[in-house]
Write a structure and sequence with these properties.
This protein is of the alpha/beta class and 325 residues long. The chain has 9 helices and 12 strands. The protein has an 8-stranded mixed beta sheet, sandwiched between helices. A 4-stranded antiparallel beta sheet has the order 2-1-4-5. The structure holds iron/sulfur cluster (SF4).
Amino acid sequence: MADVMRHPFLKVENLSKEFSTHKKIGRVHKFVKAVNNVSFELHEGETYGLVGESGCGKSTTGRSILRLIEPTSGKCQYKGQDIVQLNKKQMFSIRKDLQMVFQDPYSSLNPKKRIGSILEEPMKIHKIYKTHGERTEKVMDLLNRVGLQMDHFYRFPHEFSGGQRQRIGIARALSVNPKLIVCDEPVSALDVSIQSQILNLMEDIQEETNVTYLFIAHDLSVVRHISDRIGVMYLGRLVEEAKTDSLFSEPMHPYTQALLSAIPVANPNRKRERIHLTGEIPSPMNLPNGCAFHTRCPFAKEICKVQVPTIKKMGEDHKVACHLY
Ligand code: SF4
């Protein structure tokens, strides 16, 4: 893991994304609040893990930051400018700094193109090298860097295994020398042994290039392995944020405590009490008033049903949004 510097490299402020559902109640369209006033900072060269159950808004947060989908409101400050406000031309000029690695590399690789051409394309688009020869040299470097072979240059995506395709996905993101890579569940489709190879590769690349990762995953063991800090999301909101060690040793939010209690313990002599959550998960189309977790929270109080808890600083690097604190 890279040393975390204190300078915010990317500052996300009150980011929200609503989707129209095409459903109406009376004359009013129903919206899903996929991301609801999310704020956090990324520091240069760190890995920030974003976790939560499926549908909590973590992938939508990552895609909104990169403007792969348009956020409804909020700011993303990068190099003194708000990404959300940039026009197409301005966005294109910083696009190479902000790259993405997808969960399913196969569907993100053009099946009709050879790997050499797939890796060369972003360099052509962003005019990074002048000649085909320079680009080919860089592609060969990238193949070597991500543990693939020179002759893979001429192959098609279907000729590779899942782990190899994810290496290609990483190489493609690296081809334009990015400053931030949003990694959206990059290892969740892979076998456990391949997962650790890819995570180690990502760590090595970060050590060499000081690239920053926003690492989105539902698997807490994976996020723990790679992250310097972790943000926990529940139904579109950030409910807790802490340094990785602090989050695992002293989880504060009842939802985080329940998530951590579900991680299997390798040592049979060490027992961890599993917290079983009861109650319905609310529909994102119809969020309850107050704390969205109150329908499942074993500690819910009256105030939790009416007032949304704001996120508070609880120590040097720990924040939580809960009325218990
Ligand atoms: Fe539970 Fe209330 Fe805290 Fe929400 S605010 S997590 S309902 S105690």
